[in-house]
Specification:
Number of domains: 3
Structural class: alpha/beta
Keywords: DNA-binding
Shape: elongated
Strand order of the largest sheet: 4-3-2-1-5-6
Distance between the termini: 110 Å
Order of helices and strands: HHHHHHEEEEHEHEHH
Pfam families: DDE_1, HTH_Tnp_Tc5
Helix content: 25-40%
Number of strands: 6
CATH topology of the largest domain: Nucleotidyltransferase, domain 5
Radius of gyration: 31 Å
Strand content: 5-15%
Organism: Penicillium chermesinum
CATH architecture of the largest domain: 2-Layer Sandwich
Largest sheet: 6 strands, mixed
Protein name: Transcriptional regulator family: Centromere protein B DNA-binding region
GO molecular function: DNA binding
CATH class of the largest domain: Alpha Beta
Length: 332
């Protein structure tokens, strides 16, 4: 008696099956069985089509996030969008990540009514930029006015970086003979110190973060006990003395704590942080930390910060003048 024909390919031998014998044993056509075996061999192992792609609700959340960032003058790059997608997959318990081209294909699929598409930010001649400033600035101020409507001045902050070159003082005239007046010392070119400063619209000033150029070990003891630094100043190092992604996050932690005091932040209020939206501030981690702490980031337009950046004008000019004066005294 033939066996039941309710069988699966899993019941078949794995090595060199005798198709004729199996066909007789299970009472099926040899041609049908042979066709099924060939089909099983040629078919790839089934995979979850969503294994390394976002689900519909995740894509919708990503689109909403991109629109929000765009309204704050912080258009995300493909790399930031890729990081957002991988983070969403990780939260869903998936180990695989999206491909390197996924973000570009996703951008091409953005709904047309959003009018969002890849835009290459090219360098332009200063004269051309200045000619376009009026229209861009008017739109930027309209956005800012809408954003800050009825917001108390104590909740509006601006931060920026100011670079100094240690040892690069200014020549000066003194009374004496050339043989008795030595030249001022000047450090090696390329040295840099960055001061990260933050002010509020009500005049409040946050203690600075100083970033020094170093590839060695950082010693807090170098700065402890100095009477020339504000009490809560912070210091850090980077390879070139400039702010990095990691230091931008560390500064943001410093800002969150310093502005969360009862006299500056009430329950349910949001803080508004205006800044130059370059690379160190456009990481997914930085933007998400802002969101997690009810901070609205709002970027200045590129190429125009010299016009409306509060710190980038006279405050930093005076800052650098005082630095040169003190540097001359130390170099003499």
């Amino acid at each position: 008696m033939s066996k039941s024909s309710n069988f699966s390919e899993d019941q078949m031998p794995k090595k060199k099956p005798n198709i004729s014998k199996i066909a007789r044993e299970f009472d099926v056509s040899r041609e049908t069985l042979n066709s099924r075996i060939k089909k099983a061999k040629s078919s790839p192992t089934p995979k979850d089509s969503h294994r390394n792609n976002l689900r519909a609700f995740q894509e919708k959340a990503l689109i909403n996030w991109i629109v929000k960032m765009h309204s704050w003058n912080l258009p995300p790059t493909a790399a930031v969008i890729e990081a957002w997608a991988n983070q969403a997959l990780s939260r869903a318990g998936q180990e695989k990540q999206v491909s390197k081209m996924w973000a570009y294909r996703f951008i091409e699929r953005l709904p047309k009514h959003l009018q969002l598409a890849p835009v290459k930010q090219k360098t332009k001649e200063l004269k051309r930029i200045q000619a376009e400033d009026a229209g861009f600035l008017a739109h930027w101020y309209d956005q800012l006015e809408f954003l800050l409507r009825d917001v108390p001045a104590r909740l509006v902050y601006n931060f920026d970086e100011c670079g100094f070159q240690p040892g690069q003082g200014r020549s000066r005239n003194v009374i004496g003979s050339s043989s008795s007046c030595p030249n001022l010392a000047e450090s090696e070119r390329g040295e840099n110190i960055t001061a990260v400063e933050c002010i509020a619209a009500d005049g409040w000033l946050m203690d600075p973060l100083f970033i020094f150029k170093s590839t060695g070990n950082f010693m807090e003891a170098w700065f402890d006990g100095s009477d020339n630094l504000p009490l809560n100043s912070a210091a850090a190092i980077s390879q070139n003395g400039w702010i990095t992604d990691e230091l931008a996050l560390a500064w943001l932690d410093h800002f969150i704590a310093a502005t969360a005091t009862s006299d500056r932040l009430k329950s349910g209020e949001k803080r508004y942080l205006l800044f130059d939206g370059h690379g160190a501030h456009l990481t997914l981690e930085f933007l998400q930390k802002c969101e997690q702490n009810s901070i609205i980031p709002f970027a200045f337009l590129p190429h125009s910060t010299h016009i409306y950046q509060p710190l980038d004008g006279k405050p930093f000019l005076n800052y650098k003048q005082q630095f040169r004066l003190m540097n001359n005294e130390l170099s003499f």
